[in-house]
Amino acid sequence: MGKGSELSHLFATVFLYCFSNFMVAPAITDVSMAAICPGKDECSLAIYLTGAQQVIIGVGSLVVMPYIGNLSDTYGRKSMLTIPLALSIFPIVILAYSRSKYFFYSYYILRTVIAMVTEGSVHIPENRRAAVFGVMSGIASSSFVLGNFSTRFLSISTTFQVAALMSLIAFLYMRFFLVDSKPKRGDNVITEAHPLLLKKPKFPKLLLSLDDAICLMKTSPAFFKVAVVGFFINVSDVGLYASLNFFLKAQFHFSKDQFADIMIIFGVSGSISQLLVMPMLSSILSEEKLLSLGLFFTSVHMILYSVAWAPWVAYVAAVIPILSTLAFPCLRSIASKQTGYNEQGKVQGCITGISSFASIVSPLAFSPLAAVFLSDDAPFHFPGFTLFCAGLAAMLAFMQSLMIKSSPSLSQSSAAEPLV
User: Fold this and answer.
1) Dihedral of alpha carbons 160, 94, 27, 301, sign
2) Phi and psi based region of residue 280 (left: phi greater than 0; alpha: psi -120 to 50; beta: remaining)
3) At what angle do helices 156-177 and 3-36 cross, to 10 degrees?
4) Tens digits of per-residue pLDDT, 107-156?
């Protein structure tokens, strides 16, 4: 079977799996609120549980993913995808059957445990990785829009039933059509899920990668600035999505359909940004200026949500990602230029590690804040204060980005001195 056919089956599996997961995203806030705090539009316990789930998944992924990647390299992607895809069906089936309190807690526990191991390693020929990962990103974006669009026209019960069916189809499709691939001896294998690790996933290697990251930031002031920007933008981004739905429900009584509308607008705006706006602006602006532009509008995006005085303001804010999503690709591109060609793995791994760390820290800070300011016991009346703080974190990233100066790309020279 040709490589193109193998990858097409992999892409189809990714689409079906992402579609089933994105379908339930707009409905899960309503389900959690109805199960934990029935009849209310504000529930501190639901916010705390969501934050705790994000932290546990983040910590678990940092520990488990390297081992999953190594096992995938040894036993092949099909073998290692079988268990996660099979297990991921059960949490959705639980809510498809019933969304009462105890069924929800069963879903919550099972979903938290399984989410730590539901993404594994994919072995792809080195000369095709950039194109393949780019296509995968596009497939995930399309499944995000289509999944939320489908949810918009279904009831909550039907949404979970269809999502469970799609998850089952993804598993069966993978088992019947995806060709197993075990890397041959001597192949240059990379673990997609965790770029900080290159070969044997052991704890000493994780600590060594941390040392590499610290050394990179000490020896390259420019990279240190990029790392600071990466940390603050990820803190703000995770903080936004940890509390946005709860804020909109408490403030404007949003439900599944409105959440789906917001997500559809956001997904379409992001796609337009990546396909049209970024190629157009990149021809007239440097990456550093594009980064600053994206971060500025990221801050505006979050602050506008925080002061929303009417439901339509939330829809207007959802369009801003046309410019705010410029930040992340520019950040990685700028980071790659700070070192030589043979240091790219360490640089991108460092950025990924910082992002993962931020995704753990952010819920610890923002979940309690959201629970307090959305309750009746808030120290002052500002329901969107959590989102405002997320916007301030993005503004800190913006101000730091202004200090990043344009510099020649070191990655173009194979003779560049390694920083680590």
Assistant:
1) negative
2) alpha
3) 150
4) 999 988 888 766 544 444 444 444 455 466 667 778 888 999 999 899 99
